[in-house]
Amino acid sequence: MAADVSLPSSPTMQQTVADDSTIPSIDSSRGPSFSPSIHEAFARTDFTALEYLGKFLKEIQSLHPNCVALPLKTRPDGNCLLHAASVSIWGDESRSITLRSQVASELKQNEVWYTQNLEKAHPGCGRAEFAEALLKAETDRSFLSNIHMIALACVLRRPVVFLASQPEMANLGVGYHGCAGMFLPVRWLEEEEAGQPGCAPRLLGGCRPVVLAWGSAVHDHYVAITMVQPTEAALSRLVGFPVPTPIQVEHGLGHVDPFCPPFIPQLWADCLCRSCTAEYTGCWDMPYSATTQSTVPSSNAAHGVEVAVDSLTLLRHSCSDPVAYSDAIATLQRVVANLLKQPVSEENRVKYRTLNLENQKLHSLLGQRVGGFDVLRAIGFCDSQQQPKLILEPKNEDSNLVATVAAVLTSCQH
User: For residue 87, which of 272, 214, 211 has the smallest C-alpha distance?
Assistant: First the structure.
């Protein structure tokens, strides 16, 4: 599987790619993947997408206790599909333009294959659809769609799992004609199977999917989905990722999905089913490990009511049940109430404004929840450089901000 997937840039691209951004081989075992720290995830979370995808992301969380699946922001500039894929693997958008060039080259070099399959979907329209898809792929900032998902999967030599909200996937369907789906690198797999029959399940089982999603019900923006683990051991053992099942439609009945069963062996799709077998080793069962050069704001610089509200949204999303969320809110309320006590002795002032991050109870209620401590950072607490503590210095304390957040916390209990 050690093939170089770098392809030359298309001459019609409106932007050039620096030599050092050439995509390396990524189809070796599992390949590089990106997982942000808790603070980085907070800074990069797309909260509109979080609300839109909430139920489905909760389902993922139910399969991965103590882990949280979060959508990460991407620039809405027409290249968001490539941005999301680049973020999903490398942690930043630096490979987006190269990916667009590679998708265009994948389509151009395999025109016959794509045209024939598009004909299966819309007889008589395959050539026109292919020409439109290639033009969009070659045009910077041109919005890409499902046909490009297939090409992207072939470029990356791995599945592209594309999500929408649970109700929309139920109502609008999944697959090539649906609002979401599981896009396998079908052309590449067929090519590999021609030389080594039966190898596709092994190839799929040895690579990690790129997981993307719509950012809202408007369906005009793609975001990347990543997993965050509040503790090091959280990703030590994970079970399967809940992949939407492709629509299977018989010839002549309704829409035909050209890149989903029955036109590809069902066994290929079974490699990414909802319940993994003992033989299946792909999906989300291993921790992310790659380091990236992405730059994010320091968590200590994130203050204000809006930051606190966003942190509470993350906290609610990361809590496994309403009781855990209620307990976390109650803990935050006690911390904030202590800050508002008047009068207060100097001893208690220091006590109330110093939180030990190694305190087991505090860790279980807030520390192991994404967003828990960020609520406190939003009102001025900063991480100590010398000790595992959060400290609220007098220069960072704003009584009006604390009072406002106290009111927000009260509303969270209703």
Answer: 211
